[in-house]
Design a protein that fits this description.
This protein is α+β, with helices and mostly antiparallel strands. It has 2 domains: 236 residues, no CATH class; 172 residues, OmpA-like domain (60s Ribosomal Protein L30, Chain: A), CATH 3.30.1330. Helix content is 51%, strand content 8%. Strands 3-6-4-5 form a 4-stranded mixed sheet. The chain has a two-stranded antiparallel ribbon with strand order 1-2. Helix 18 links the parallel strand 4 and strand 5. Helix 4 packs across helix 8. The chain starts with a helix and ends with a strand. 53% of the residues are buried.
Length: 422
């Protein structure tokens, strides 16, 4: 039996698999391999960070046992790539693993890996679906399969932590070593398609899992998700959260989205709109001191440096009270953001969601993430490339006003945008 999860994955991710996966999702073998490597790294890192959660380990062990009892399910490539049809235990267990490890933050993982690997989010989503049962199968094979316990899984992850977490970049390249070894004259077509994966995977770091994702992949399986989805996510967030970013400046505060239980602040009087010229000639209607004007000025200012400290608060973008649905009044500002991104094709942005400190902090964090993702999805749905927009929720972090007053809480409930490339 192989001595590590990585060694087993090397046997599962073969040139034959990549040559089947690539055409099925419209990718070359090397790009499919790079994306699959990144996705495998995401899962391995998330698993390692949950070793201290006994309930999570027990549930994930059950998922691995399900895959072990239906090993033929890994041959259902169409079902694995689709991820939405529980035709086999492998598909079903893979869906459950995605929900337990990433929950509402799946979309951001998919978009990050898509951008890093140079593929469309749809293809990245398919690889996200495929990586889950592969990882579960490797775990089951490593520990004998069929009777895996949570304690045994935790021990395994702790034992191999260095390879799985500390060296994810090299581990991802190692997963693809069979592809390189298969580059022989006897297997020339498959080798030529797969060999570049090794260099590509080594050159590109594994994308960091983000906290802010909801792409609806598990709508049909929500009934399967137990409190593990929230317990596990909390452990992941605490141990692997991305570097904190400062809030948008207080001067730009808006009547932003509500916290879980708090009502959204009443909309301010409609601003006087003016015509704002964009690059290439088009114009938009926006307030002279509104967020669109500030963003356009920032983009056009050669001396304005790109950093993670500069945020602009939306001032005409609101959500239904206590929900993640954008109001109809928000369409104008979304349309303006789309027009700006079309006029400045080099620009990339990040959407940030924030709440006040009313109610449960975890619920607020989740709500802020979902709202940020909704804004991102609205912009992408209007035709902007997915790798130009990212989203993250910060909950009640990075307050810009006093939470002891209603006025201050209203300012803290906001959605902001940061320019990350221009």
């Amino acid at each position: 039996m192989s001595t590590s999860v990585i060694e087993i994955l090397k046997g599962l991710v073969t040139p034959s698999l990549l040559n089947s996966v690539g055409p099925a999702i419209g990718l070359s073998g090397d790009i499919a391999g790079r994306g699959l490597n990144d996705m495998i790294g995401q899962y391995l890192g998330a698993l390692v960070h949950q070793t201290g959660d006994r309930d999570a380990m027990s549930n994930i062990a059950d998922m691995a046992n399900s895959v072990a009892r239906d090993s033929s399910g890994l041959n259902d490539l169409k079902g694995l790539l689709a991820g939405g049809i529980p035709s086999t235990m492998a598909v079903l267990a893979g869906n459950r693993l995605m929900g337990s490890l990433f929950g509402v933050w799946q979309a951001s993982v998919v978009h990050k890996v898509a951008a890093a690997a140079g593929m469309k989010p749809e293809a990245s989503s398919s690889l996200f679906n495929l990586a889950a049962p592969l990882v579960l199968s490797a775990i089951a094979k490593r520990l004998g399969g069929g009777a895996l316990t949570g304690a045994a899984l935790a021990a395994l992850l702790g034992q191999e932590k260095g390879a799985l977490l500390g060296g994810l970049g090299s581990a991802a390249a190692a997963v693809m070593s069979p592809v390189k070894a298969a580059a022989t004259a006897a297997a020339a077509p498959a080798a030529r398609a797969a060999a570049p994966v090794v260099a590509a995977a080594a050159a590109a770091p594994v994308a960091t899992a983000y906290a802010g994702r909801d792409n609806g992949l598990f709508t049909s399986f929500l009934w399967l998700l137990v409190p593990l989805a929230f317990i596990g996510w909390l452990a992941w967030q605490k141990l692997h959260e991305p570097p904190a970013e400062p809030p948008a400046p207080a001067a730009a505060a808006q009547p932003a989205p509500a916290a879980t239980a708090a009502p959204q602040a009443a909309a301010a009087p409609a601003p006087t709109l003016a015509r704002i010229a964009l690059a290439g000639g088009p114009q938009i209607e926006a307030a002279s001191d509104g967020v669109e004007t500030k963003i356009v000025n920032f983009i056009n200012d050669a001396n304005a440096a790109i950093d993670k400290q500069t945020w602009f608060n939306f001032d005409r973008l609101t959500f239904e009270t206590g929900a993640t649905s954008l109001t109809s009044e928000s369409k104008a500002q979304i349309d303006n953001m789309v027009a700006i991104l079309n006029a400045y094709p080099a620009v990339k942005i990040k959407i940030g969601g924030y709440t006040d400190n009313t109610g449960d902090a975890q619920a607020n964090l989740e709500l802020s993430g979902k709202r940020a993702v909704k804004v991102m999805e609205a912009i992408v749905a209007a035709g902007i490339a997915a790798d130009r927009v990212e989203a993250e929720g910060y909950g009640d972090q990075f307050q810009i006003a006093d939470n002891t007053t209603e006025e201050g809480r209203a300012k803290n409930r906001r959605t902001a945008v940061s320019v990350r490339a221009k």
